[in-house]
Amino acid sequence: MTKKQFHQHINRSFYEMVTKAYPQYELDFNESGGIVTLIPKTGACGANMIMYHQSQHYVMAASFAFDETKQHEQEMTKWLEDFLLNTNLV
């Protein structure tokens, strides 16, 4: 698997997981710098967006985000860590 294919596989798998497990978020691919924004479909979205870095494969939310958003960020981080370890891609 090439480096490009490696990143594409991780990203596609992450997007599929988010779409299924977190339907309350919309994926916004319009950010520059390899960032995809997960925007809540309802409610206050500004402080409650989650950013996903496509080449570094990490997520982050604002420190002042709602507790639910921070919980989702932690769950997504755990999923990414487990996925990378279990697929023997790193």
User: Any idea what the radius of gyration is?
Assistant: 13 Å
SSE order in H/E notation?
HEEEEH
What fraction of the residues are assigned to beta strands by DSSP? 15-25%
pLDDT < 50 runs, ≥5 residues: none
Question: Can you list the strand order of the major beta sheet?
Answer: 1-2-3-4
Structural class: alpha+beta
| Number of DSSP strand runs | 4
Report, as a whole number of angstroms, the end-to-end distance.
12 Å
Sheet with most strands: 4 strands, antiparallel
Overall outline: globular
Secondary structure tally, helices: 2
Q: Report the helical percentage.
A: 40-55%
Kindly state the mean pLDDT as a whole number? Answer: 91
List keywords for this structure.
single chain; 43% helix
Plain-language structure description:
With 90 residues, the chain is an alpha+beta fold. Helices cover 43% and strands 20% of the residues. The protein has a four-stranded antiparallel beta sheet, covered by helices on one side. A hairpin with a 6-residue loop joins strand 1 and strand 2. The longest helix has 20 residues, at 67-86. The protein is globular. 16% of the residues are buried. The mean pLDDT is 91.
